[in-house]
Prior knowledge:
By secondary structure, this protein is of the alpha/beta class. The protein has helices at residues 10-21, 54-63, 79-89, 101-117, 142-154, 213-226, 235-239; strands at 2-6, 25-30, 44-47, 68-70, 92-95, 125-132, 160-165, 177-184, 191-197, 202-208, 231-233. β4, α3 (79-89) and β5 form a beta-alpha-beta unit.
Amino acid sequence: MKITLIGYGRMGHAIEQVAHSRGHKIVGRIDKDDQASIPSETDVVIDFSTPDSAYNNIRRAIESGFPVVSGTTGWTDRIEEIRAQVRERDGAFFYSSNFSIGVFLFRHLVREAAKLINNLPQYSDVQMEEVHHVHKLDYPSGTALTVAGDIISEMDRYRDTRAYLGNAEKPTLAEDQLLIHSLREGEVPGIHRVAFSSPQDVIRLEHEAFGREGFAMGAVMAAEFLQGKKGWYGMEDMLHFDK
């Protein structure tokens, strides 16, 4: 498989290493919002750019007829435009806010816990925390928002999220808001925590990444999965989980 990388930072380098280890070739490296052309021999574009540049990078690649795998977060307020473009162009697009298989399993555990706890009003306090490296530009993380969406889908009491960063004052919440606390520390690859609390106890679920290799492996596996396909895909499709 011949891959063009858009975004050649830490994740781009990690994806390159994993791709080479699986017998693939990197034929293009486009950094962030660089307007360099995507090489014509490209089989798939993998985008890990920036929130400001991702939409245009993805749109340009799909317009040019290339399958795209993207893990960039912070731009998804425009994701429906990309979804429409994929339909119009008969393209192929694979999106996940987190390509770690462990995070995907964590999401399912959180969803099952939320489903059980929905009928237990004593566990009235649900909180989330996410920790990432200081270079991450957006907050809360895309993964945190995805996990929050999983909780909201299973718990009647929540309709929306509210996030705050670092040592900022904890915001006042509406009754139907789920709180996400974001921290930016050192070179932390990613930690996500969910706590379900009652007056008597607390139930905690946590996923911690030890490095970027797990994310990179998932992205390359997604690129392999996308070969020969048309349409819109996510981790559920690749791992054969029910949505």
